[in-house]
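User: Hey, my collaborator sent me this sequence without any context and asked if I could get a structure. I don't really work with proteins. Can you help?
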Amino acid sequence: MTWHVLGAGSLGTLWAARLARAGLPVRLILRNAERLADYTRAGGLTLIEQGLPQRYAIPAETLDSDTPIQHLLLASKAYDALEAARQLAHRLTADASIVLLQNGLGSQDAVAQHLQGRRCVYASSTEGAFRQADFQVVFAGAGHNWLGDPLLPAAPKWLEDLQAAGIPHQWSADILARLWRKLALNCAINPLTVLHDCRNGGLRDYPVEVANICAELTELLHACTQTAAAEHLHEEVLRVIDATAANYCSMHQDVSQGRRTEISYLLGYACVAAERHGLRLPHLQQVHQRLLRHLAARGLPQN
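Assistant: No problem. I've predicted the 3D structure and written it out in structure-token form, which is a compact way to encode the shape of the chain:
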């Protein structure tokens, strides 16, 4: 059965290339005819591992194609996920499965609600990859992928495809805990690197800010009954800062390149959750407001 992949960013491209390399049928979904023409000129997707490029001539189509979809990897940005789901809903088979590979929280629930009746699997990834150019992805660091379905605990049979493709993965009975943990890590690191214009390792110079945000995020996670996600959060944040010291986080890259960020699904989502639970988290809210002003000053969207 064919895997349709929407989202030619770093992770979507990485998954598509590995599935194709394993001989599994894959089709890319591109947003319009212009992008399809760009892809055709590129001659396919190029995966670069340890400096060695390999091109895969994966078939591609546009959003308005009419081929049915049984397996969909939705790897778009969080703010594009719901609209993509709306545009593709009529093409999904009755037994379709959709893997949602978005940052933060909020977009997954919105897509699942719109696609009621189809199985939506939430995914959280720690794999490192970045686009070197259009339709070229560099595999930058080994990681792992957790997948789970908040409504159906049983693992789907198609996980065998990920195994065959060498995509490291694990089925998680509590995927929301994984997503909350990653959201907390992102909230503790990404906004501060933007505000201080630094690589992840630069946050070593701001230990008090990092500690204050981690303390408030831990309080929020407990209020949201995400106790497992809250455990040793500060220590994990410091470990990630050290392990990725030379990297610019995705939010910093988005801002520096004048792209829209996923703030509403990261720090914005956390602040809304705090308000819902009646929590006063002044450090988190202050960083959120500073980041909104920072984006506004650069003419970037604040949602």
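In plain terms: Residues 175-195 form the longest helix (21 residues). You can pass these tokens on to your collaborator as they are.
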